[in-house]
Amino acid sequence: MAKNKSIVKKVLIGLLVLLVLIQFIRPAKNLSNAVTTKDITVLYPVPDSVQLILQKACYDCHSSNTRYPWYFDIQPVAWWMNDHVSEAKEELNFSDFGSRPPAKQIKKLRKTAKEVEEGEMPMDSYTWMHKDATLTEREKNILISWANNLADTITARSHK
After folding, report:
1. Is the pTM higher than 0.85?
2. Is there a contact between 135 and 53 (Cβ–Cβ < 8 Å)?
3. How many Cα atoms sit within 13 Å of 20 on the Cβ side?
4. Which residue among 19, 27, 118, 153 has its CA within the 20 to 30 Å range from the CA of 72?
5. Closest CA to 31 of 84, 68, 83
6. Is the pLDDT of residue 120 over 80?
7. The pLDDT of residue 1
8. Which residues make Cβ contacts (< 8 Å) with residue 32, sequence separation at least 6?
9. Sign of the Cα pseudo-torsion (141, 142, 145, 146, in order)
10. What is the distance between the alpha carbons of residues 74 and 81, in angstroms, rounded to a whole number?
């Protein structure tokens, strides 16, 4: 019995040491205040009402400037969040929106509208920790309408 307690104690100490050591391995933060020529707000009209919605519910994952909560400094949470943001930006990055061809932009805007309409975005895992990112029905309608109208505008431009 004493031998089992000794093994458990060694395992727990090992895990504690590992937990402390991983605190020094930090991912780079997704921080850029620069607005590039590829940013959606530079290329297309984004009304203030839409910009506010994007800032509160979308940009942390879908732009080049994430607002980090205090718990980002704790590993392995930071690794998980970094991976989540990287995947989200790969899917849709409003800061680099213009780097995609018009057909891809249209597809991303339509998908954004659909996911907001179906309640898939913003993700529940995000809104649990960021209550201010929960969209009202009015905000959802504003964002959906804007995304679909902008997709229609890009479609019309690309067919000229």
Report:
1. no
2. yes
3. 6
4. 118
5. 68
6. yes
7. 62
8. 64, 65, 95
9. negative
10. 11
Instruction: Answer for the pair 40, 94: CB distance below 8 angstroms, yes or no.
Output: yes
Closest CA to 116 of 93, 147, 94, 85: 147
Distances (CA, A) of 149 to 63, 78, 156: 21, 36, 11
pLDDT in tens, 14-48: 888 877 777 777 777 767 777 789 999 999 999 99
* Angstrom distances, CA of residue 154 to CA of 75, 104, 143, 160: 42, 10, 16, 10
Token representation of residue 33: 């205040």
100, 93 contact by CB (below 8 A): no
How big is the chain, counted in residues? 160
Residue found by looking up tokens 């505008």 in the block: 153
Q: Which amino acid is at 111?
A: K
Report how far residue 74's alpha carbon sits from residue 134's, in angstroms, rounded to the nearest whole number: 25
User: Which pLDDT belongs to residue 10?
Assistant: 85
Tell me the per-residue pLDDT of 58-107, one tens digit each, with 9 for 90 and over. Answer: 999 899 988 877 777 788 877 877 888 889 999 999 999 999 999 999 99
Q: Is 120 helix (H, G, I), strand (E, B) or coil?
A: coil
Query: Beta-carbon neighbour count of residue 60 at 10 Å?
Result: 22
